[in-house]
Amino acid sequence: MPRKPREGTKQASVLALLRRPEGAIVAQIDEATGWQAHTVRGFLAGLKTRQRIAIEVLERVRQVGRDRQGAKGS
Question: Which residues does the chain have with pLDDT short of 50?
Fold first, then answer.
């Protein structure tokens, strides 16, 4: 069973963002935490493996540059 994070931590704020009905995107999480995108993805991978929290990816879009996006699913 996953441990409950302490109040006011970055982990608690990320989990709150993910629990919203609309969920969260990496950009929203990195803005809230100050983390870089690769750190957010690593944190989410850790939630899946170490804490057994299910993470769903609804749509994946490859980022090709600042404020631009690539093909869906890439």
Answer: 74
